[in-house]
Amino acid sequence: MAASNRSGRPFATLRRVVQLVAVFALGAYLQASGTLSAMLMYSEDVLYLIRQHIFLVAVSSALAILFAVPLGILLTRPRFHRYTNFATQFVNLGTTIPTLAVLALSMSFLGIGAPPAIFGLFVMTLLPVLLNTIAGLRSVPPRLLEAGRGMGMTDRQMLFQVELPNAAFVILAGIRTGLAINVGTAPLAFLIGGGSLGELIFTGIALNDLPMMLAGAIPTALLAILIDFAIGQGQYWVVPKGVNPLR
Amino acid sequence: MITLENVTKIFGGTTAVDNVSMEVPAGSICVLLGPSGCGKTTTMKMINRLIPPTSGRILIDGKDNATVDQVTLRRSIGYVIQQIGLFPNKTVEDNIAIVPDMLGWDRKRSRQRAGELLEMVNLDPGIFLKRYPKELSGGQAQRVGVVRALAADPPVLLMDEPFGAIDPINREVIQDEFMRLQARLKKTVVFVSHDIDEAVKMADRIAIFREGRLLQYAAPDDLLAHPANSFIADFVGSDRTLKRLRLIKVADVMEAEPCRVRPEDTLEAAAAMMEEAGHISIVMVGPQGRARGFVTLDAARGRKGTVGEHYEKLPTVVNVADDLRTAVSTMFARGVSWLACVDDDGFFKGYVTQRGITHALGATYRDG
After folding, report:
1. Is the CB of A152 less than 8 angstroms away from the CB of B158?
2. Structural domains in chain B plus CATH codes
3. Is the ipTM of this complex over 0.85?
4. Predicted TM-score (pTM) above 0.80
5. Using CB atoms, which residue from B76, B102, B132 is nearest to A242?
6. What is the mean pLDDT of each run of 10 residues along chain B (368 residues)?
7. Searching chain B, which residue's CA lies closest to the CA of residue A238?
8. Which end of chain B has fewer CB atoms < 10 Å from its terminal CB, N or C?
């Protein structure tokens, strides 16, 4: 560990320096070409839209997690075993439907505005979270279940002390994937009247207005990176040390 | 005490356990032995109701286990499985304290108990309490698995091939450790194994299973000396008489209170003692009674002088606490037909001869 740190540090430092230089160069270029000042004109819009964007992402992903994790738990209970294959196949089918089609479909029966956008994002996020919850719970070694049962654990104790902690890493990986899809898809909400930073991006494209487009795209990208980083941290700290490959 | 009364288990159309009745006395180790698929594991799992019996009763200390809530029942029975089953998300300490925690023990008390248990299997609590299972070797993990089953001090212990997945050297060490623990704790143990050597080493009684039926239930020496049928004779192996050597201690077959000489005795006196007793050699002991050497009848007869001037060194000795297997292999290795037996301090206690061992092994056949 210490050895890899020592050899890893110079590279990390080098990378950081290169990144800083690149960001500075980009900033200098944008400033010189006048793009930056043009972008700053949209700062009020950006602040408003980013709030809208975060709202869409937060509500849809929270609903998806609150729905998919319990559903995954339910589908891995012995009582529901026979439905598990059907459910995973159904969900697999769902992943093959293009994002835009999902949004269009949800608009066709929920109208326009935030609700259809949230529903569409919810569906897109649901799939990886559910699949990973099922996969994670199924990957818990049978010997742990046998040991737990043999020691007199109740079903509830088995779930919370054995199954979920041991599946946590895989479940969180699913949530990470789901949120990456969610944040990336959220700009499309603009197309069905849901707002979001997509408003700047799509309008920018339509008007061939580079500063406007960048004013939408750069916050979207930063948001995606930030959320991914946050969940990565969550994975690092929340998953018990003994079953955490990161620690 | 565990009593099985006409216990039968039918899975679908196949009978896994067929009308088994047996009794495991309190404080003893009963090994359920047989080839895979013989019903031994199913029988064990019916005791803590991981598998419900189709018919028959199982009594633990006279109480029908079907009348106890199964969670309560399992918490009162220690359970060790072959693949250990330590929870990787919990530290060693938390793993050991699982049952005490479920029983609502005070946290301080259960954690202190975890430390005490680790010490019992020679693992330093200071090092191991806070470790995770992935940071343990196989042998260490299995030790933790065993003490975890002992955490709430249950009177009954079920063990499903607990040492099966450990390399032979470590297995011996852990078996010995467990036997020392058992000598102190006196649990009623039901132990599933497919290894006849392990069974002979650990069991007070062995139950041999085949195709769901209990074929023979006997003490290890009985089983090896008198297998009930040809299947059991094959299963325990054609070297079963050699296996019995393990069960008998040197102290049980040696000639105790043997005649001996001292260095200052004359060769004449030594020869007279040997002739009187019908021996061809005699051991010489030091002033305190430690075995020092020996003289043969041939060397002593008709010669002058003292034993101290003419003795030969003993090629080797055997401890009275060793089993006969050690004694016999020492004899073969040294090419001798008798060995002097000493205790831990080197005091001469007796001698064991090949003829005496043969006689002891044959005793069971003559009596029967």
Report:
1. no
2. 2-244 (3.40.50.300), 250-365 (3.10.580.10)
3. no
4. no
5. B132
6. 93 91 94 91 93 93 91 94 88 94 93 93 92 91 92 93 86 91 93 90 93 92 89 87 86 84 86 84 86 85 82 87 89 88 88 87 74
7. B89
8. C
